[in-house]
Amino acid sequence: MPPADSPDSALAPPSSRRDANAATIEKGSSLSRDAWLRLRKNALAMASLCFLVGIVLVSFLLPLVPGIPDPNATHPELQSLGAFSRATTAEGQSIFYLLGSDPLGRDVFSRILYGGRMSLAVGFLATFVSLTIGMIYGAVSGFAGGRIDSAMMRFVDILYALPFMIIVIILTTYFGNQLWLLFVCIGAVEWLTMSRIVRGQVLSLKRQEFIDAARSLGLSQSRILFRHIIPNTLGPVVVYTTLTVPAVMRLEAILSFLGLGVQPPDASWGSLIKEGADLMSSDPGLLIYPAAVFGATLFSLNFLGDGLRDALDPKSSKD
Q: Which residue from 309, 304, 295, 197 is spatially nearest to 249, judged by alpha carbons?
C-alpha cells in the first residue's frame, strides 16, 4: 500500500486512505498517565515508593504471621540478649530474637513492627484529616474572597501564633494520655499550611475560562467549587501530602519522646527511640534499629514527594 502522503495514495480506495491515516494518528494519553511515566523515570522516587510499600506491608501483615513474638510479652530472664539469639523462657517456650531483646525481655524486632503500625497509622490518618480540613477550608476561603476570605485567613494566622506544645500539655493534663487526643492535637495544626496552598490555587483557578463557562451554564456555586475547582488543585495537594506525612510522623515522635504521645505498653517509633536513648550506653542497638527504620521511612517520603513534584509539574524539574 503506498504511503498516505505519496502521489499514488490519491489513486487508492477511500477506505485504504482512511486506514493509512488512522495508523499515523498517535494514541492520546491522560495527564495522570504522563505523570506516572515521568515518575517511573525517576529511579530514586521509584525506589522510595517500593520501600514505602514494603515497610507498610511488613508492619501491618508480618505481625500476623505465626511465630512473631508478642511485643508486650516480658521475659526478665531473657533480658538484653544480642541479635540473632535463640533462648528458652521459664515456661519452656523457645524464642528467636532477630534483633535481640530489651531489658524486660521483649522482642525488639516485633516491637519495631508494632511501633511502625502506630507511627504509620498516625502519619497517614492525621494527614488525611488535615488534608480534608485544609482543602475544604482553603477552597471555601479562596472561592468566597473579600471579607470572608480575609476573616478566615486571620483565623489561620491566630492558630499559627498559638504555642502548640503548651496546648498539648494542657490537653494531656486535662484529658489524660489518650490516643484520640494525639490525632486531635496533630490535626489541629497540620491543616493550616494545606489551607493556604489550596487557597492560593483556588484564587488562580476561579478566574479561568472554564469557571466562567460553568457559571454561564447555570451551575451552583457549590458544584463549581467541589466538581471543577477542587479537583484541579490535586497536583500541589498530592505533592504536599507526601511532605505532610513525614512532618506528622516527626511530630508524633517528638511528643512520644517527651512522654506526651503513645503510652506504654504500646509503642511507636518515637517511643522506641526514647527508650533506646535512655539505654544507649549499655545497648546501642535499642536506639539504632528503630532510628534507622524511622529515618529511612522519612527520607523515602521526602524523595517520593520530590519525584511527584517533578512528575506533576515538569517545568519545576531540574533535568
A: 295
Compare 150 and 179 and report the one with higher pLDDT: 150
Hey, where are the domains in the chain? 64-316
Per DSSP, the three-state class of 281 is coil
Place of cell 498516505: 4
* Size of the chain, expressed as the number of residues it contains: 319
pTM of the model as a whole? 0.77
Q: In sequence order, what are the residues at sequence separation of 6 or more whose Cβ sits closer than 8 angstroms to the Cβ of residue 76?
A: 104, 105
**SS3 call for 88:** strand
What is residue 13's predicted lDDT score, i.e. its pLDDT?
57
Q: Which residues contact 190 (CB under 8 A, 6 or more apart)?
A: 126, 127, 130, 134, 244, 247, 248, 251
64-316 has which CATH code? 1.10.3720.10
What is the reported pLDDT for 55? 92
- Predicted local confidence at residue 296, as pLDDT: 93
C-alpha to C-alpha distances, 307 to 17, 29, 80, 96, 301, nearest whole angstrom:
43, 20, 41, 39, 10
Mean pLDDT, range 41-61, rounded to an integer: 91
Cβ neighbourhood burial of 254 (10 Å; 0-12, 13-18, 19+): middle
The set of residues, in sequence order, having a beta carbon less than 8 Å from that of 127 and lying 6+ positions away, is: 190, 241, 244, 245, 248
Place of cell 508486650: 72
What whole-number distance in Å separates Cα of residue 309 and Cα of residue 240?
A: 9
Q: Which amino acid is at 210?
A: F
**pLDDT, greater one: 278 or 30:** 278
